[in-house]
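Hi there,

I know you've been waiting on this one. I reran it after we fixed the sequence typo, so this is the corrected version. Both the input and the resulting structure follow.
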Amino acid sequence: MGAVVQVDAAHRRAVWLLVTCVLLWSTSGVLIKQSSLSALAIVGGRSAIAAVVLWLFLRRPHFTWSAPQVGGAIAYFFMVVFFVQATVLTSAANAILLQYTAPIWVAIFSYWFLGERLLKIDYVAIAAILVGMLLFFGDALTPSGMLGNVLAVLAGVAMAWMTLFMRKQKNTSSLETVLLGNLLAAAVGLPFLFMSPVQSSDWVIVGFLGVFQLGLPFLLYATAIRSLSAIEAILISCLEPILNPILVFIFVGETPGPMALLGGAIVLLAVLGRGVVGVRTARGR
């Protein structure tokens, strides 16, 4: 009886850890929108602080410098750069929802990269994602907004490759890959931060992004995922693309277009549906 209570307590704790993680992740849009800094300056400052947080937690990070670890770090770098730039150029809803096409890109690329065959649900989800993306790009956009949408899609592709490279790493911590990616992003972005006129509010925003939006959430995620099923992780993580644009609407007043909202709903349902069916199929096998 005591063991069951202990397991239940650990499970509840993991759920709340992941919910907290997602809440912190979802603050990216509203904070990036309120900063006067360029995208690369934000990336540099945020990643430098996140790298410190991760290094203090790991204490002695184990860098193997293997192709998957380096490849995952490079993919992480492009993911954060593309996402921050996309958030600056287009609506926060467009940026986060188009980045959330990542699971579909994983399904597509894993066929030849990892030898994992696609399920029937993958083809359905890919078709739905393409329809959703067309709605995003069919909305009334400025040239910069159109570029932002393209960068958001590329952020999703980069996230997919980060995931694929992490799968290639057996019996190693994924936090080292994230740490290495943040160090790379800091090396590229910090010169832009130091050359920029930085307001006091920008320092607060970059500090919060580095500690509470990037560094700490990855530690919470790594802890929570050990006690959660895959479907629970999928369901809870899908709160981020919902909360992110809501926070931006409340604090910035930004609203995406009607076609983008419809496209976002299709993308989110396709990703969620694919995750649910994929997990059930794996359990059946």
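Quick highlight: The mean pLDDT is 86.

Best,
R. S.
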